């Protein structure tokens, strides 16, 4: 893609991000209480006007408004509440949160500063997707999820790590796949220290490196594969180590908070909507702590195994497609499925050539869920009827939740069967001739 095309993509992204910020900023002000919380009726407006964001909401309750540096002096109480600056996110996200609040005195200022901090990551994703997949990057730059969720939580930086890893592997001008994959592994490790999920992709990337061999030789590059896994893990450890040393209890509290998290309305997963009449049961909650992660790991194993079968047929391990399928398994089966997780999946609609029907259907279902969930919460807060037969809000919510779940199952299969869009737009020099000799067709 030409530079002018990439600039145009970034201009479209700027428009979308501006709309996203304007949507969330509707919840701020015009008055503020002594803690800098927007008034009047902040919570009712956030739900009723569908302008809620975790960024604004968490201004109070995590010592963010007090500008406390995260993790060092805090911990978790017996009731599961955090104190002393601890936030429920990995350490690099905690630092971003602290930086966004540094000069803010109200939730409005915090939202604005956080948007300024994160917007460059949104542009980076656009630029890299444009370089990787051409104009298909408009699926990111002009997408409804970017309006709904760009500044809902702190997800743009972690999406940039995941997309940056793909960019490094397929566009960095180095003849050595091992070197490119090692640089990508570093980004995946940083992604772990932001929101965990990019580290999942180290496994398919390692299998991709393993099966490419070295110097055109028809053998497995075991050392390169282990290097990918080791660099990802090592980067994640090094990012966490200063916080572990400075305040181990506060650092551990963020992980303990997530492990204790109950399946409830805040998790918004199929486990809540499918079994919400059981969520008061201690046995159910304990079972979810085991069943959910086991099923997620099983989905990972299936995705990697199908990828291997495809490698044996085509000569190339489809690591991007396998990564996309793994993410679908995680989003479907994990006990938490926050609305903004759609931003994690969105780049794979650009990077993998699934049918447009899948993309449109998912965006429609996601928008139905992402809008109606807050209207539904507002109805509950106001004491108004909110059953499935009481109006369109509840019906749209169920369509969104279960439509999205069904589509994730379908996308898991569709991603594994699809071709990557990356090589269609050119790639760095690689051992394509070796693949042609080995399999007859250098399929990507």
From TrEMBL:
Q: Which Pfam families match?
A: GT87
Q: Which UniProt keywords apply?
A: Cell membrane, Membrane, Transferase, Transmembrane, Transmembrane helix
Which GO MF term does the entry hold, naming one?
hexosyltransferase activity
User: Where, by residue number, does the polypeptide cross the bilayer?
Assistant: 82-103, 110-129, 149-169, 181-208, 228-252, 286-309, 315-333, 345-377, 397-418
User: Its principal location?
Assistant: membrane
**Membrane-related topology note:** Multi-pass membrane protein
Where it sits in the cell: the answer is: Cell membrane
Q: One GO CC annotation, please?
A: plasma membrane
By sequence similarity, the record places it as follows: Belongs to the glycosyltransferase 87 family.
What's this protein's name?
A: Putative membrane protein
């Amino acid at each position: 893609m030409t530079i002018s095309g990439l600039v145009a993509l970034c201009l479209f992204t700027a428009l979308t991000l501006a709309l996203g910020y304007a949507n969330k900023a509707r919840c701020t002000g015009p008055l503020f209480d002594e803690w800098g919380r927007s008034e009047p009726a902040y919570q009712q407006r956030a739900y009723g006007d569908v302008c809620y964001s975790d960024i604004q909401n968490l201004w109070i309750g995590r010592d963010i408004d007090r500008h406390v540096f995260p993790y060092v002096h805090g911990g978790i109480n017996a009731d599961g509440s955090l104190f002393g600056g601890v936030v429920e996110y990995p350490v690099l996200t905690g630092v971003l949160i602290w930086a966004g609040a540094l000069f803010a005195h109200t939730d409005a200022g915090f939202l604005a500063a956080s948007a300024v901090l994160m917007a460059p990551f949104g542009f980076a994703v656009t630029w890299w997707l444009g370089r990787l997949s051409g104009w298909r990057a408009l699926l990111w730059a002009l997408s409804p999820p970017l309006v709904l969720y760009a500044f809902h939580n702190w997800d743009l930086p972690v999406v940039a790590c995941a997309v940056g890893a793909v960019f490094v592997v397929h566009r960095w001008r180095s003849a050595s796949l091992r070197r490119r994959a090692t640089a990508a592994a570093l980004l995946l490790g940083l992604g772990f220290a932001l929101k965990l999920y990019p580290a999942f992709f180290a496994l398919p990337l390692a299998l991709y490196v393993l099966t490419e061999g070295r110097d055109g030789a028809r053998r497995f590059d075991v050392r390169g594969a282990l290097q990918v896994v080791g660099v990802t893990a090592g980067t994640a450890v090094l990012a966490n180590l200063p916080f572990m040393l400075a305040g181990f209890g506060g650092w551990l509290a963020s992980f303990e908070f997530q492990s204790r998290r109950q399946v409830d309305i805040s998790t918004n997963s199929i486990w809540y909507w499918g079994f919400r009449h059981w969520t008061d049961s201690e046995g159910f909650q304990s079972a979810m702590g085991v069943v959910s992660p086991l099923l997620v790991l099983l989905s990972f194993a299936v995705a990697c195994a199908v990828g291997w079968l495809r490698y044996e047929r085509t000569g190339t391990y489809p690591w991007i497609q396998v990564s996309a399928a793994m993410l679908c398994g995680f989003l479907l089966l994990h006990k938490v499925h926050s609305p903004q997780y759609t931003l994690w999946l969105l780049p794979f609609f650009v990077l993998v050539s699934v049918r447009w029907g899948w993309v449109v259907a998912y965006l429609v279902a996601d928008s139905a869920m992402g809008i109606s969930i807050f209207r539904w919460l507002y109805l509950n807060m106001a004491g108004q009827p909110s059953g499935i037969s009481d109006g369109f809000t509840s019906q749209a919510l169920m369509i969104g939740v279960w439509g999205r779940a069904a589509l994730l199952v379908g996308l898991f299969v569709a991603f594994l069967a699809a071709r990557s869009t990356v090589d269609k737009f050119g790639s760095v020099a690689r051992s394509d001739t070796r693949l042609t000799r080995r399999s007859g067709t250098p399929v990507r």
